[in-house]
Structure prediction request, 252 residues.
Amino acid sequence: MLSAFANIFRIAELRNRVLFTLGVLAVYRIGFWIPVVGVDQSALVENAKTAATNATGFGRLLQFASIFSGGSLGQSTIFGLGIMPYITASIIFQLLQAVYPPLQELKKEGQSGQQKIMEWTRYVTVGLCIVQGYIWLNYLRGTNLVQPMFLQSAPQIAIFFVVGITALTAGSLFLMWLGEQIDKYGIGNGVSIILTAGILSRMPNAIGWVVENFDPRQTAEPGKIGIAGLAILVLSFVGITAGAVIMTVATR
Prediction:
């Protein structure tokens, strides 16, 4: 296994693809340090921590949305929406191709048809980003997580929404573009790699949370995870991984 890994860096083309992919992932992580203008980041982080600690519905929703989108709503950065709008748009068009005859005919046209479908997918991605961005920013405004200077008048509120939605939309589109670059010049599966990078970046915090909240007593305190809960968590992880492997290597 180690020799196979070492061979990656002996083959020039493969080495360049791996290094390119790593460089793209570095850019992806840098984006999480660029906040959306107008959001009170310190208050938002504290709010997210409180919601996660108290295991509220919002806290769970925020964690799941961040994990499965490859974004970071808890920090409200330009990559806050992640790449999920693009994935959602792709799924929509894949489903429509099975039930909508004009799209079926377009798919049969080959490369030109696929390019047209991809173009429409990007347009829908923009629309989803705008809707999701507005919902998120409106939530921040309603929970007093926006800096007061952006709430003093209607024009300032409008500026906050326009700038915020533009930043979130541009961030998601940039992630979509990064995924396409990994497909072309990297090791492939760009969208999956970006999602995986987002999930792995949260693994240390997730493990730390389990260690901090583990209660070995038979009856764990509310908000803590007991032995039974830890066992279920481990078994679920193993089961999901095994199921994914089985589905990946399955043949008809």
Observations:
- The mean pLDDT is 82.
- Residues 214-252 form one domain.
